[in-house]
Amino acid sequence: MPNDVYNGIVLRVTDYRESDRILNILSRERGLIAVTARGGRKPNSKHVAFATQFVYGEVEVNERFGKLQLSSSAVMESFYPVRESYEQLVSATRVVNAAEHVSEKDQPNDELFVLVYNALSVIAYGGNDPKDAELCFMAKLLRLCGYAPTLTRCLKCGRDLRAEKEVRFSNSLGGSVCGLCGSAFKTVSTLTLEALRRMMLIDVSEMRRVRLPEKVRAELEPLIYNYAEFVFEFTVKR
Ligand SMILES: [Zn+2]
What we know:
Elements: E1 4-16, E2 20-27, E3 31-37, E4 56-64, E5 67-77, H1 86-102, H2 110-125, H3 130-144, E6 166-170, E7 175-177, E8 186-189, H4 190-201, H5 214-232
Parallel strand pairs: 3-5
Antiparallel strand pairs: 1-2, 1-4, 2-3, 4-5, 6-7, 6-8
Helix pairs in contact: 1-2, 1-3, 2-3, 3-4, 3-5, 4-5
Bound molecules: zinc ion (ZN).
């Protein structure tokens, strides 16, 4: 049987047996795949460069009894600088963890693949605060998965909220609520919601231009992760 070739990003690496590695790869052609790199932990292994988190490359895989084994691998982009600072590493790790959570086995999702690739690229090479690319990734991921929150009108009374300075945000209702309808929910500035709205809408190629004001970044991070944890049912390490 001929081997299959995939382009993919290594989202997670798990050590297995004495010297093997299992790679959870987001492939462009087949969605999430788990591939065993036999001997992938040995320093002289031909797979040692590829069998590393965040690496993008081309793999040749053979399938036996439903299990995928790596037969050859070529690194095309290691996103090496994501490992250069703690902040970059945290942002890149959150990107790949969230991507793995929402991706599906054997279900190609080109938009997701392109989003992850661009986010890692901006975190590695963008030169801005990596948190901005990470939050932009999360905003776009929510939208891609059908969870774009409502941000400009009250979800209860329908009132336009764009002229307000502060509104409320409800995870369970899925977005903004006016002060009268949602006094129990947390307040958020409309400036932060506008930043979130723009980040959801921009093209991925524009991600590197995102620069959030400090105040917006500080407010948006807990808001976006509380909401993402609610809709995706996952926990983000903080
Ligand atoms: Zn209202």
